[in-house]
Amino acid sequence: MLWFLHLLNAAVYASVATSAALNSRQIQWPSLPNNLTADVLQVAFAISPPCAANSTWCQQLTSVVIPRCERLRGDPGCWCGNHDPVHYCAICMSSPTDNQTTPDQTQAATAGHAAFHVACNAYEELINGTASTTSSTSMLSTSSQAPTATAVSASSDNKVPIGPVVGGVVGGVVGLALVVGIIYLLAIVLKKNDRGSDVRPSSVSYISSEHKSPNLYAHPYPQLPASYPGPAPGHISPHNSTYVPGPEPMNPMIAPQPQHPTSPIQN
């Protein structure tokens, strides 16, 4: 069971490590002169109470733009794509029309606003340069010979996305670990059932001769009760072999003979 837990932990660790590696690759933004996230936050921290209450651009910056771009890990396209809220909110502090905006807030908003434009201009040039390079490369590839076009298409086809492949491998490892664990648990349950069937006593042994009462051997036939009446006169009981004589019955067909007087013998 311990090896199954180790295998499952290894699969989970591999999945977490893979996702962390993919996330780290996703947040490698192009190199810019300064950090766009820090520039926008510098403008947001310099918002004065009048601008926070009256400027819809400042309200949109703090409630919509900053949370959205932070969820995207500081994507430069998100910051530069929301140019207007940052630009007009910074102008509210850099050119205040009230006496509640402090000089420090004005200076911070102005510096953050300027750095924001520098970084977004560099990002725009980078995007435009990449697009122009891509378009020129595509034009050259279409105007070149057939073998060159085939080689370019083959190199583009060889770029297999890493994320789905790694996800499939990790999913396969986790699925294999679950299948092995289920088989192991089934083997344990079957082994317990086999042991239970070997120990269970047989129902036939309870009615065998070993469990019969000794009284059954001493009295194989039912005994007569003690109040059983004795045998009639002249009857031989199978339980008592002693013969009890009774009066002889009279024969009604033989009548008694009368005795005649004898005459005396004369000498």
Automatic annotation (TrEMBL):
Stretches the record annotates as Disordered: 229-267
Does the record's keyword annotation contain Membrane?
Answer: yes
Instruction: Tell me the first and last residues of the signal peptide.
Output: 1-19
Q: Which UniProt keywords apply?
A: Membrane, Signal, Transmembrane, Transmembrane helix
Residues crossing the lipid bilayer are 165-190
**Protein name, as recorded:** Mid2 domain-containing protein
UniProt source species:
Rhizoctonia solani
